[in-house]
Amino acid sequence: MDYRHKLLPYVLLLPAIIGIAVFSFYPFIINVINSFMAGTTQAGNLRFVGFDNYRYVLRDRILIKSLVNTVNWTFTVTIFQFLVGFGLALFCTSKLKIMKLVKPLYILPWAIPGVVATLAWRWMYNGDYGIINSMLFQLGLIKANIGWISNPSLAMMSVIIVGVWKGFPFYLLMTFAGLQTIPGELFEAAKIDGANQRQSFWHITLPQMKVVLTMALTLGFIWTSNYYDGIYALTGGGPARSTETLPIYIYNTAFSYYRMNDAVIPSIILFIFAASLGAVYLKLKTKGDEL
Amino acid sequence: MKKVLLIVLVCVLLMSTLLACGNDTTTTTTAQNGQTTTEAEGEKETVTFWLPGTVPASPDEETESYKNMMLMFDKIRDDLNIVLDFEMITFAAYDDRCNTALSANTGPDILMVNSVTLGAFVDKGFVMETTDLMENSSIQKDDFFPGLFKHVDFNGKVFGLPLDTGTRALIYNKDMLSENGFEFGKEVTWDEMYDAAVASTQDTDNDGITDVFGYGFLGGESWMNLYEGIGMFAIQNQAQFFNDDLTEAQFTSPEVIEAVEFVAKMNEAGVFPQDAATLTDGDFVSDMFVSGKIAMFTGGHWALDYVLEKEPDFEVGVALAKNKQIGSSTGGWCLNLAAKAEDEIAELAWSVVEYVFVPENLILFTNIMPATIEANALAMQDSRYDLYKEVLPFSTHPITINKDLPEIAKMLRDEMQSILLGEVSVEEGMQRLNDDVNTLISR
User: Fold this and answer.
1) Where are the alpha helices (DSSP H) in A59-200?
2) Cβ B209 vs Cβ B219: under 8 Å
3) Which pLDDT does position B87 carry in this prediction?
4) Once rounded to an integer, what is the mean pLDDT over residues A184-205?
5) Which end of chain A has the lower number of beta carbons within 10 A, N or C?
6) A87: Cβ–Cβ under 8 A, 6 or more apart, which residues?
7) Does A150 sit within 8 Å of B421, measured CB to CB?
8) Chain A residue closest to B211 (CA)?
9) Peptide bond preceding B312: is omega within 30 degrees of 0, i.e. cis?
């Protein structure tokens, strides 16, 4: 009975392990092997080419550009999503009656399907007939139409705005929940000791929220770095590849150019990035559980 | 006992998940031929046929072209005495579905392949060489327009047959041009086109912002840019993007540079809409044209049909633009045999292909221009299509079909965007493109 009791957790984990092995681990290994190959079995020219594919892909100036775009997109969007979400979460702790009406509206961007929202933004951004240009023109703020997604200098900023709008509710929910767990007595004690709001925020709220905030940001970085559909629907990675991030580069290489073996290589880069952040997340979660 | 039940439950849940993952219900619309297999049909060979399109949700929504296609499939079944299983897959999912199935040596016996992806499919060994099948066939190379047959000819080896195509021409607002003092004949030079476009570009409500544009340029989508954008101008200027054996890119040749400079000149003159370099929606340009916001644009006969169906309140004209020659880009679909098809099925599948290419059948099957000379003469009899048919013998694919065509088209689109958006000069952009493409094709 004793050995069965010890074996049970592993047996219960077995289906999940098999699932991960079959649907994640095995395809990953096969793809890595394919990244050292060229040709196809159907064409009868499948062959080992060593690091030739790596040499070609890693020297591709478009890959370098997409990596820069990915870093820009990931960090800017995540940080601003966090700032807006956390700021609104603090605002939501207000006891005003109107907050009951306002709070659900903050979740709306998250609730709207991604591609639907993105297409709506695409029309709003239209250079000739978009509502944004129309409003700004009528307010006298611009004298000529602005190419929000047709100007390479502005396209990434426009895409980032949509990304922040779409994703801030996640941080709002996470941080709002975290704020509810801070004991009220701490604020009362601080008030008695003469602390003002700013001091309470820096010395009580932030330290108490440290684990929640770090976990939310880590997840945010992982998800944002992988984000594909909204950017693709809005700009397709253009104009002139100014918004082409790594996921779009991978998709184009694999499914538009039919260079499956090459597409694995930037996927590995993305995997290393996400796995590193995933390790950070797990470590923080363990620490959070201990607390 | 409880533990055993728990383990069984977990395994059942896992199996359910695995089975559910096997269902593909997301992106495709399929229609089977609806035949149930009777004893007699059990003796017949089955040929599977994949094609892009959307199955109508109900009989009321069936278009004329869909009904014609079903009619043709019924004729094939009856006359060739086979079971023909066809599957219609939505356009957006079609290439991916074919790629996935053929990679796994599954999929159809016959499939339609777009000319832009045929090179990649040939390179991957997905489609069968049909040179030998053509030797004693009822269909021969001379039955096709030469520029179209080049789509399926890879250094003397033939892979399938070109099915249909479409040419492009200049569609313009006769009334608007007339108001601005211009009248186009059957052929229009670049200078005439430029002058008319500039004269038509206006701020009609005097708010300081242009609201009527001279030319609707679509630079955002790589195929539109190739077929109806820079590709058209290159052909009209007798420019070639590659040498004959596709070993060297020629994006820096004087003819190509001249064509790109002409597009850049139009852009600088402000005749393109604000987002022209990134516009991807052809219907948007057509709608702007119908609304009187664009004076002219390059479009296929389907764009002309779209415009005329909207019944604009002005007269619509069609002309052939030229600089050194008239000409048009062509693309289109090809009909291919899958390489996986075994010999016996391959011969039967080829019989189906031959049947499709009988002129009256080809007209039923395709709702754009048939690729054979005889069928083309019988199709699209309306006089509105005259110029589109007239330019077909002078038409060709802007870039010779090859395995890297999708990527090269995108690289060309991106470089054109860089040029039109002022990031680089024409010479710098074309030189950079030339270098990148040469690196790609030399692998």
Assistant:
1) 61-92, 99-111, 114-124, 131-138, 152-180, 184-192, 197-200
2) no
3) 92
4) 89
5) N
6) none
7) yes
8) A128
9) no
